[in-house]
Design goal:
Blueprint (H helix, E strand, L loop, with lengths): L3 H8 L12 E7 L4 E10 L2 E10 L2 H14 L4 H5 L3 H7 L8 H25 L3
Antiparallel strand pairs: 1-2, 2-3
InterPro entries: NIF_FeS_clus_asmbl_NifU-like, NIF_FeS_clus_asmbl_NifU_N
Protein name: Fe-S cluster assembly scaffold protein NifU
Organism: Candidatus Magnetobacterium casense
Length: 127
């Protein structure tokens, strides 16, 4: 059974799309169920000012993608890295046990997008 909040994020997902000049991009997938997520972030002064996603997957994966972008926006990179699969599931008022793996997609894709941003800074020698 899905919560009303999860159903709202599935039927009215926020932040769908891509950021062409994204500062960081994270991709995560689950080969078992076939869900795949690509997360784009825009950073200003070490704070996430925009986040968008493209997800191929079930309703729970889409809702998680929508929620993770909402949770990340406005956060510092340190704050965003503290977002866990449990906090995403809690923000959606829970996920069925068989769908908890979807919350991993969001948290892991966000972490990878931040890592991508930081690796670009290192390569540019601006850290």
């Amino acid at each position: 059974m899905y919560s009303k909040k999860l159903m709202d994020h599935f039927t009215n997902p926020r932040n769908v799309g891509e950021i062409p000049d994204a500062d960081g991009v994270g991709m995560e997938g689950n080969p078992t169920c076939g869900d795949a997520m690509k997360l784009f972030i825009k950073i200003e002064d070490e704070r996430i000012v925009d986040a968008k996603f493209q997800t191929f997957g079930c309703g729970a994966a889409i809702a998680v993608s929508s929620m993770i972008t909402e949770m990340a926006k406005g956060k510092t990179l340190t704050e965003a890295l503290a977002i866990t699969k449990e906090s995403v599931a809690d923000a959606l008022d829970g996920l069925p046990p068989q769908k908890m793996h979807c919350s991993n997609l969001g948290a892991d894709a966000l972490r990878k997008a931040i890592e991508d941003y930081r690796s670009k800074l290192t390569q540019a020698g601006t850290t």
